[in-house]
């Protein structure tokens, strides 16, 4: 569990610092990730790189873990404070959401948005609705 929490902390820190390479180093080659600002999913490190690069050209998101819960089913739930701003500094969203990670062999294999269980990332997150 300590290793899981370390992976989670490092991944969020790298994302917030816009250090794509360090974040991707914590993920499996076949990682599946929701496209919160666009809807749908990306699979694999290069698709995540392309998605985040696009996202950061439109928004300034910052996600800070508040609570990390390791579940018996191998999933790790992370309650995060999410602040999303426009590039001009306008606050688009400021609140808490839940991210659910599946970590396999010390690497992030999948991330889901708990706020959207029914559609599992099919539509953009409400945090990006003002764009």
UniProtKB/TrEMBL annotation:
Query: Which InterPro entries has this protein been placed in?
Result: NTF2-like_dom_sf, SnoaL-like
- Location of the SnoaL-like domain: 9-110
In its UniProt entry, the species of origin is given as Granulicella tundricola (strain ATCC BAA-1859 / DSM 23138 / MP5ACTX9)
Protein name according to UniProt: SnoaL-like domain-containing protein
